[in-house]
C-alpha cells in the first residue's frame, strides 16, 4: 500500500514537472502519453506484420496418397517375401500398399555422411539469424500445412489425426519456437569464473558444432522423430544424417521434400539433411560410418548394439530407450480430472509412446472408484482407420507383430491372476484388415507377471493397488526402466515428495507428459531407459563440443610468464616459491595469506634463498 502511494506521488511529481517544462495542461499531457503508447503499439504491430511477411513461404505438392483420405488400392501382405534391397510401405490401418523405399547399403550411407560433412563445413559458419530463418520457414510451413502433415503421419503409422496434432505437430512447433526464442542464449560463449590463482585470466566455454550428427529413430512419430533431432542439430550448426524406421519410411517422401524446400529457401546447403531408409544394417553403418555424435531413439535391445558399435570408433552416443512409466494416483487426487488424463497417458497413439503411462498405481481407497469410472470409458473407445469416414479415438499398431506381442503379455497377466476389464482380444491377425489391438484394461496387476517387467508399447492400462507412500515408491521403482513418471495427489507437496523419490528422468506433478511440452527441459531416462539427453538446454548443448577457452583478462597489463624461480633450470627456491603460492591463495584466513605473501616476496627478492613458505607456526 505504502509503495503504491509512493509511486503515485512520484507520478504526480513527474506530471507537475512535465507541466512546468512544456507549459501543457494535464489533459494535453495525458493525450500525448496515450498517443505515444498507440504509436509504439502500431510500430510493434507493423514490425510484426512485416517480419511475418518476410518469412518465405515454401510450397510442397503432396502426391495423391499424401493428399487424399481414402484410396482404393493394392493391399499389402506382411507375409509376402520382400526383396531385401527395398523397404515396403503400407498403411497399417487398411494394409493399403504405398510403395517402396530403398534399403540403403553401408556404402550408400557412407556417401550420405560424406555429403553431409561437406555441407556442415559451410553451415557451421552460419549466423544464428540464418538458422532462425530456416526454423521460421519450417514453422510457417507446419502451421499452414498441418492437415497434410497429420494425414501423412496417420497413413504411415496408423495414428488418429488428433494424436498426430498433439504428438507430431504441437511438440514440434513448441520445439522450434523454443529454439528461436532461447536457443542462441544457450549456445553463445558462456563466461565462467577463472578461479583464484588464474584471477588474471578470462575463462569461457564456447559451444562448437560437433559437425555431423547421426540420428536413428523409431516409427511411433514419423514427423516429430525426424524434426526433433533435425531442428536442434541444425540450430547448433551441424549437419544431420537421419535413419528412419523401416516401419515408417513412406512419410519421408513428403517430409523430405518439405526439408529440401526449406533449406533452399533459407539459403542453406542442399545436403545438410540426409535421410537414410533401410534396416538395421543401414543403422549400423550410420553408427560406424564416421559421424561425430549418434542420437539413438529406440529399444533397449538395439540401444545396446548401437553402444557396442559406437565403442569401436569412440563415437559418443545419446541413448533414448524404452520406458514403462509409473502413473501414481493418491486417494485425495481430483479423480475426475485424473481419469481423463490417465486415458490419454495409456491410449494416446495407441499406447505406442516411450514416455507413455504403463503402470497405473491407484490408492486402495479410490481403487474401485477409479476403475468404475475408467471401465465404461475404455470399453467405449472407438477404434478404426483414422482416415476413414467415422471418427476414431484409437488407431492401428504401426509395427507388424506388435499386436500379437502385446496380446501375449495380456494373456500371461490374466493367466497369473490379473482381471481383464476391457479389450484383450486379438481382433484380427496382422494382414487381415489392419494391425489393430483394442484398448485394454487390466486390474490387479502384480510382480511376477511378464507385463510387470516388460515394456508393452501398446494400448494397455495396467492398474495396481497401493496403500502407503513408501509402498508405492518401492513398487514404482521395481522396474528396469526409468523414463517419465506422473504423480497425482490433493497436496502438491505430497505429490512432489513422492515424485522426488522415483527413479526416473522426468516427473510431472499432477499432470502427465508436461515435461516434454516445456522444451527448455531435458528429455531422457535412467536405468534401461538410457542416458544423456536430447531435448532442452542440455540436449542442445550436447550437440556441440563444449570447448574451454582461457585468455589474459588484461593483456596490456598482465601477461602469462613462468615465474623466475620456476624457469628452467629451476632455481633452488622453486619449491619454496610453490609453497608460498599455495599458502597465499588457499590458506584459510588472513594469517595464512599474509605469511604466504611474505614468503613469496622473499623468494622473488632473494632468488638464491631457500625460503620456507611453510604455514605459520600459530596454525
Ligand atoms: N526414449 C525415447 O525417447 C523413445 C522414443 C520413442 C521410442 N522409444 C523406444 O523405441 C522402441 C520402439 O521403436 P522401434 O521398434 O523402432 O525400436 P528399434 O530399436 O527396433 O529400432 C529403432 C531404430 O533402430 C534401427 N536399428 C535396428 N537395428 C539396428 C542396429 N543394429 N544398429 C543401428 N540401428 C538399428 C531400426 O531400423 C530403427 O530405425 C520402444 O522400446 C520405445 O520405448 C524411445
Automatic annotation (TrEMBL):
<dbReference type="InterPro" id="IPR016163">
    <property type="entry name" value="Ald_DH_C"/>
</dbReference>
<protein>
    <recommendedName>
        <fullName>Aldehyde dehydrogenase domain-containing protein</fullName>
    </recommendedName>
</protein>
<dbReference type="Pfam" id="PF00171">
    <property type="entry name" value="Aldedh"/>
</dbReference>
<dbReference type="InterPro" id="IPR016160">
    <property type="entry name" value="Ald_DH_CS_CYS"/>
</dbReference>
<dbReference type="GO" id="GO:0016620">
    <property type="term" value="F:oxidoreductase activity, acting on the aldehyde or oxo group of donors, NAD or NADP as acceptor"/>
</dbReference>
<dbReference type="InterPro" id="IPR016161">
    <property type="entry name" value="Ald_DH/histidinol_DH"/>
</dbReference>
<keyword id="KW-0560">Oxidoreductase</keyword>
<feature type="domain" description="Aldehyde dehydrogenase">
    <location>
        <begin position="85"/>
        <end position="549"/>
    </location>
</feature>
<dbReference type="InterPro" id="IPR015590">
    <property type="entry name" value="Aldehyde_DH_dom"/>
</dbReference>
<dbReference type="InterPro" id="IPR029510">
    <property type="entry name" value="Ald_DH_CS_GLU"/>
</dbReference>
<dbReference type="InterPro" id="IPR016162">
    <property type="entry name" value="Ald_DH_N"/>
</dbReference>
<comment type="similarity">
    <text>Belongs to the aldehyde dehydrogenase family.</text>
</comment>
<feature type="active site">
    <location>
        <position position="320"/>
    </location>
</feature>
